[in-house]
Amino acid sequence: MRGSRSVLIGLCLIIIGCDSSQVYDEYQSLNSSWDKDELVEFKITPPDTTGAYDLFVNLRNTSDYKYSNIFIIVEMNHPNGKVLKDTLEYRMTTAEGEFLGSGFSDIKENKLWYKEGYVFKESGEYIVKISQAMRENRSVNGVEKLDGIIDVGFRIERPKVSN
């Protein structure tokens, strides 16, 4: 009986973990806070130069995150030297202050759109660098140490086909 329960739990984990649209999904853990000068870097070799992909920035936050939004800078370095740089803003809470994202505990996972239908036109290694660009209201200087963001990830998916 005990063995069959272990097999059942194992099968459930495999089913939950399977994601046929996933091409790339990696996280990097941060120390106790995200320093304003800290770049989180991902090295990616896309599978082809013809297919379109959806790109996401993934963030895991705890209840120590004290803002309702987040500003991040995403820089994508192409193999040919071209650099694409975007400053992005995402909502992190509802109007009532409840954290967005998924998760059962005080850790929430946010899958944030970066680019839709993106084609990696050159073959070779792409480098994606992500940094935080938060500022306090009425302050010119950035937030030195951003508490509550514990992991930063980057994800590439095949677009979902709608019927």
Brief synopsis:
This protein is mainly β and 163 residues long. 10% of the residues lie in helices and 46% in strands. It is built from 1 helix and 10 strands.
Question: What do these coordinates show?
Answer:
- Strands 1-10-4-7 form a four-stranded antiparallel beta sheet, with no helix packed on it. It has a four-stranded antiparallel beta sheet with strand order 3-8-5-6, with no helix packed on it. Strands 2-9 form a two-stranded antiparallel sheet.
- By secondary structure, it is mainly β.
- The chain contains one helix and ten strands; from the N terminus they run H-E-E-E-E-E-E-E-E-E-E.
- The longest helix has 16 residues, at 2-17.
- 10% of the residues lie in helices and 46% in strands.
- It has a single domain (21-157), classed as Jelly Rolls (Sandwich), CATH 2.60.120.
The second-level CATH architecture is Sandwich
Q: Tally the helices: what do you get?
A: 1
N-to-C span: 43 Å
Rg, Å, rounded:
18 Å
- Assigned CATH class: Mainly Beta
Q: Could you give the order of strands across the largest sheet?
A: 1-10-4-7
SSE-based structural type: mainly beta
Topology:
Layout: H1 2-17, E1 22-29, E2 33-35, E3 40-44, E4 52-61, E5 69-77, E6 83-91, E7 108-119, E8 126-132, E9 145-147, E10 149-157
Antiparallel strand pairs: 1-10, 2-9, 3-8, 4-7, 4-10, 5-6, 5-8
Features:
163 residues; four-stranded antiparallel sheet; 10 strands; 10% helix
